[in-house]
Amino acid sequence: MDALSSPLLRAHAASPAECPITDAEVATLVALARARGARTLAIGSGRPPLALAAARTVAGAWESAGGDIALKLTWPETAASWLRQATRFAAAPADLWIMLGPPLGWAQMTRRLLWSTTWSPARTLLAGAVSDDRTLDLVRRHNLPGIAGTTRDGTPWHLDAQDHIVPHAKEHTQPHMTNRAR
């Protein structure tokens, strides 16, 4: 990882308007976590109402599918360091981490995770709110080897060895879920 003097971004683009998580995103996150053999998740998000609702929705879907939640954690969009949140998130006894938006808070939290913890991007899935080129570039893609996620329409993706976002076919990741919690 590049040497960082702080997880705080000095300059950043304005975040796009926040949108609710889609059913397709939730289904893809659950399917990707299952495909990776996860049983227990740690879920992290920013604190705006739609981000909190997204975290509850993902947790509910995961639990409905028979999984466990080790930790649900929130972080602020701006902070002195994000060290407390990053330490708790990285230490969670989870098989996989799921991270939600908004983009600016996610990027700064991720920079702190990379700088100060044993967190692994390869054990992390991202929701659509933080799965675009501009957001990943806030952290610099080469710092995120193995990270994967879903777009808002439910298309799964991963970063390849050249730091390109590679989409996958959706039909291989959609689980059969009933009674998904809202």
TrEMBL record:
It comes from the Bacteria. InterPro entries: Peripla_BP_I (IPR028082). This is Uncharacterized protein.
